[in-house]
Amino acid sequence: MLTNMRSLLSGSFRRNLTVTASGLIAFSATTGFAGYEAMKEHVTLIKNGEKQEIRTHADTVKELLEEQHIYPRPEDYVYPSINAVVTDDLHIVWEASKRVTMTVNGKRKEVWTTAKRVRELFAAQNIVVGPHDQVFPSLDANVQKGMNVSLEKAFPIQLNVGGKQQQVWATSTTVADFLKQHNITLNELDRVEPSLHEKIKENMVVKVIKVQKVTDVVEEPVNFAVVTQKDVKLPKGEQRVISPGEKGLVSKQYEVVLENGKEVSRKLVKTETVKQSKDRIVAIGTKESYITSRSSSQASREFYVTATAYTAYCGGCSGRTSTGIN
Predict the structure, then answer these.
(1) Is the pLDDT reported for residue 17 higher than 50?
(2) How many helices (H) and strands (E) does the chain have?
């Protein structure tokens, strides 16, 4: 019986000892876990604008981000730096960069950026955007993942419209699109140099020759004709105006081409008589004059002649002819 009591006591002690040991291990584990948890740092992580509270044993920002399965690209925004030491109540900001395709003057490249606006994107790439440059989308547009951004740098050219020249800014486009951008309307007859399909180039001169077709009506006098007629009643050689004559008037219609306000061609398209001219009529005498002699068998004709007379009484005269006759 004594032996049985000893065995009973021995078994009971061993069971109590086992229970005590298990309790101690569990207590130690619990205490250790609590202590381990208590040693974690409290960190605030702002991930792409979303706030998150984290407790961590990470030593650096990089380790903390990796715990969150975040592996930053060099272009990502991380604050403080990935090598910064994690401390209690630390605020960490991570913003993932976006892939954007940029085309500048026809040259294309892909970039990663954290820029919020297109304006900031160009600034981050050290690209200066001038006031006349063409940007699409606008500088104030939000940067989206996978978006395409284009920039055409403006350059100076000379624009001559209707003879008035000025310097303007243009981008690489056709002459037709350039004129539209500057609100220049072409009339049907206008001429453009160079052609509308040609590409604009730096320091080019673009001419718009304003062409007009106008009608010019001119009235011109028409001289009268002189008509002669024989008059047997007038002595031969005499003239008499029967009708003085009167000038006529004709209307001529011209098609005139003007370039920049200056006449370059003129074409007669129609002629109309406004007033008929009247001929001048002149009578010319044909009457012959006759002298009748006393001889009935002969008749003399009358002639008009010039006679030369000689006298010895003129100043410086000797009274003798060149033949010596006195």
Answers:
(1) no
(2) 4, 20
